[in-house]
């Protein structure tokens, strides 16, 4: 793909307060390098999502060294240095350890924009006591991102315990009827708790953007 | 439909310990009357499920008066008198009041075979304290039937709190993605709690039969 | 259904700041009356959703006259008087007039809790100028609820123009592939705009609850 | 993933009588090693499911040698030694040899908790005589786990012949409409036999857990 | 709809050996009358399928009296007199009485073309002895049509016992996951027995046509 | 719904050359009357689609008499008089008579904008000679709209015989797997003929609009 | 998997006239070798389907040399020598060359049982003349197997032209909505031609078995 | 596959004005070589679609050097030299750079037949200004092909701004609910703009063929 096939949305920052994010899965190294060239030439920062170790490794040296990469979330910061120096205003919670790549994508997106996150992992409802042990801490946050796969019962339980905004991120964790995350997605949307909102499957980035839209108004 | 089109499975009682149950939804009154004639002629009992007030009302007097009818569950006992005189060995729990027609179908099926049920309603996870208030009582039962629609988070939470057999009955309660019960079904099957088993949507009868298969071996 | 089958979550108010809401579709008048009896006896208020003119008309006089009913949204306020006396902090936007029953359900839910809403209707993207005419007004709100059916392109366009939180409510408006709202739901979840969040199909109530969770923290 | 991202549910044993089971598919070796470290440090046992030969081979020596591995079921016992020294109380039956990985997962889970299993393979209904030859033996068990893919007709036939609890495990065996196991799942749920219960596709582990929940009450 | 909107395929008889069949569900009485006019004017016979008692009753007298109507199958013969005077060469079998409207549609289609049918009802696999009692009779037929809903296990069992052609007609009998017949359809297509063929859900007419295509070559 | 809830897109005519079309299914008479008031007040014309005889009959006299109504297509012209006085430039073809409501909606939409249509009905591929008899006439048109339900084989066959633009309109005609038109839709999209385009199920209006977009450029 | 996990249905030959067929996809070489050992020891023949070149190559020499392998269909004959020495009684037709692996599986299955096949390839309806050129030859056969993917229009057209039995084999050929063969399957089931029967996606083997069931009765 | 298994539709050119196009994905090199042999022997040109770099590289030298290959679109011209020497009459627009492989397939197909294309990339609605900047140029074209994945909001917005024919090509770009392109497809079909037509997912070739069918009549 040549450079003229690519036209980044550099004005997004002034319009929405977001830099453009590049979803890297499926993009060739050549394609990624062209994008980074354009960003560098304009002095723009970029958030790279779903970028694999292999993709980062194959980039030209100059680009590779300019990226702050984190492998669990498969995210990279290009240009901007994420400095989450404020106290956390957003909690990010997971049902199981397999949901961490998704929750960490949310955390890293928050970091990119300077927001800290309060992370709680492995509090799925099959072991309810694990959640109840932490719930008083979690309730203090007015925004709670919840990543859960399989039956995604955690967002419902959370929505019934926490007065703040609960943003559910269904994950593709699971097999059989859970495979691909469709069951988790539908369970989160059908939640019996009032006012739980949902983003696309595995979309930690989107959950963080929603939180950022909100937190700026606080 | 004429009498020779109908051949009831009267041997089911000796083979499985169950009388034949007649699923009445969609059957004409003539069809039902022929079935009841055959049962009466053999001195057999029948459990009637999904039989509406209108269907019962339109039956010939002799048949109608021979039926012990309960409208919430839409069940009727023909011939057999359900006498649940033992202490309850099975708990039947619902997430919301809209799940009661299904849970009551389970309870009535148990009654038909002489089993009492311990009923708990409206303990859905959106108000977790309602469940926790009752959980010690529920844990005493080695078989717990759980009817829940929408996101069906209750079977997962129950499966993590109760050591006995948890039989989930997803219900068709809900709208949008919950409509028809498919989301509740898939969430129950994808449960993160170990060993939760599931029956068809709205199948209170089937859940009770499973419980009966088990309770006989106790 | 008898009174003991119903156990309302009256503590929800103190836990989450929400009264219990009663989803009335499919409930019998007897069932509704029992619920209203319990609320009246405790001096509690209730928000009634999806309650038809026929259901309201069939209630006992005392209950009927105690309900503030609005037919487009099919909502009723029991007990509480909604007084949205503050300036609106939330915009509620629809793509077409067929989406108004859903958007009005959101507006009424906000009113029930004392929040005004800034309503904009019929700004679907097929006539983009209608939206662009109003966008500067809409951008002033930090929370924008968007109800749209069919292809639900409006939440994406809105998400790219508005810096605040965009809560998409897919509606069941449409036929063929749009029937039931599944296409609108999936399009909203797959939105190319960052940070659009989504609730269940036709769930104006849920969108409002999410907005209320947020607005209380502002 | 670092150690603090992982919080095992070690209390599950006292609450439910189950050790935590680790679903290993998709987990990195580093992730698995961290989990095994935590278990070893607490002196806890773990059941490992869906763990491939390659995963086991890549573990640190100390962990690898501590695992009792069985390749057909892809299960490993860490710490606990399964000693099924009682007479079998549970039958585990398969329709075809392709269902054996799933049925063997059930058998191994039972062994982990000290239960023997009576295994019968290749009795699918396309060759009905194979089933009828063995049915008298199978009927002696009050719990029968049935693994079947494709059209999953075996659970229905079994449910009509056996008075005990029939737990169907649909498998992902088959191609075309059978691919992924959804047809087998739905056929098992729609069974015309009364009281057949169902677990997730390929979930031999879950079927065994259900059986264990029951057998403890016998 | 006016007469010129309708162009029947009267040449089908010479081409395929079938008269045109009119699927009447959803057609207005005016539409049906126009079709019958055209057939009468050409001296052609027609097989009417899915025609309700109400539709027949609303036809002009001359047409109504010219129709040989059977209500269970909702079929009518216009013009042609079905005289099945040969010995039956085709067996038509049902799993349950609820499948009889579909199986009877097949039988009536056969009658229309002069073929007798050997009918066997209520031999579903939940009561396997009912089938085994009749299997020797059924095996004598080289074509066996099997109508079954829910989990449609009967075609598989039949396909393993009978050497002739087994034509499965999945029916829309059942609720929950069985609703609409999709599960029965997919189970029949995924049959573990070799060489079972399948037609559309509730398509008794199509199964009979397939049998007729075959029986003419015998 | 009140007048301010409705904002018609009267500028659509100048922008796209289309008047706004009102999809009437599900709209109340009050809603429709308000729309017609607005149109009348601006001297605008409207195309009404999916408007039933009952809806038209219930309108105020002044509106009713101002509508040119056609019941098969359920369309009405308000204000504008369709005068298709040119020779037809577009062929509209149906597979069966049940597809005529949809094809007639296309024809009426063309008439509204002054375009004649060349109509051919009942040329489905099950009687291929019916199509081949008419194909030379049809090939003369550079735009061919094809309405077909069930398996929608006609668009593929047409696409292989006709050099002009083939616009497939899948219809919801059929039962079982054909119900709702999804099979027809997918078959048309998967057509083996090059360059067949498709619109939503039953969307005769949309097919006509596409044809109009094209014919204006000829 | 050990030898006792495998129990072949060697009696199928006497019961149905079919040897057992082994679906090899997904089976390990060890598993296949055990099966072949059992067959050899009993002097039985086996039809191997979906067996890859790699699988055959990895078998022990003695087994490999005993297999008559054909790579397009991925079938192998073990033991039995297929000698199709009679004139063909069955036509096997494909829409495109990509359907040949499936149609060839049918042909090879017929050969295994001594039946010749009359093969016609590449007569899809997008180039209708290709089919019409061959239709008189095809019509002579009383059984016609039709393999077609994508929109599967060929079975419908064939069903309207040929008086014999038309057995449709939908194939997984195609992309987008055609991917996996579901569209082809549903189109074949919804065929507007009377009496077309259908087997599972890509199931050339099943289509041949159905033909064999029928041809034996001729 | 041998040469007689392949029968190209060389008459398509005279019938429809299209050469046969070969969909190369999944075809072996031997299969492709045979096809190219047949084309060369008849002096025919072929358009090769979805042909990978690896497939081209593995062809015999003579064939490889005769192919004009373009890797982004994965298309090859065999024989014919595409000379798009006229001014562009068709616009080809994409929402994002990930849609370029599909849009480029359309462009290359147009080139093969001598048509230029006016390409516009990266004008998705999340950054609406990018589209509005270019819309006046795009509106000049009477045919606009729009490739978009995810929520495919661009075809709707385009359909409301452009009076010409809008051909939507949904792409499989996206993850979660967008994966595979089904959401984009359904959103395009449900478009709220009048007269948008749709082709199969990722079917740039088909969109171009539709445009060619139309442009020839201009």
Helix segment tally of chain A: 9
Any low-confidence stretches of chain A, pLDDT <50, length ≥5? Answer: none
Mean pLDDT of chain A: 93
Radius of gyration of chain A over all CA atoms, rounded: 18 Å
Strand order of the largest sheet of chain A: 6-5-7-8-9
Straight-line N-to-C gap of chain A: 42 Å
In percent terms, what proportion of residues of chain A is strand? Answer: 15-25%
Helices and strands of chain A, in N-to-C order? HEHEHHEEEHEHEHEHEH
The biggest beta sheet of chain A, please? 5 strands, parallel
Helix proportion of chain A: 25-40%
Shape descriptor of chain A: globular
Biggest interface and its residues per chain? A-C, 37 and 38 residues
Write down the oligomeric state: homooctamer
- Strand tally of chain A: 9
Q: What is the SS-derived class of chain A?
A: alpha/beta
Structure report:
The structure is a homooctamer of 218-residue chains. Chain A is of the alpha/beta class and 218 residues long. The first copy, chain A, contains 9 helices and 9 strands. Chain A has helices at 12-16, 29-42, 53-58, 61-65, 100-112, 128-139, 154-161, 182-189, 204-215, and strands at residues 21-23, 46-49, 67-70, 75-78, 90-94, 118-120, 143-148, 165-170, 197-198. Chain A has a 5-stranded parallel sheet, sandwiched between helices. In chain A, strand 3 and strand 4 form a beta hairpin. In chain A, helix 5 runs parallel beside helix 9 (204-215). The longest helix of chain A is centred in the N-terminal third of the chain and has 14 residues, at 29-42. Chain A is globular, with a radius of gyration of 18 Å. The N and C termini of chain A lie far apart (42 Å). The mean pLDDT of chain A is 93. Chains A and C meet through strand 8, strand 9 and helix 9 of A and strand 8, strand 9 and helix 9 of C.
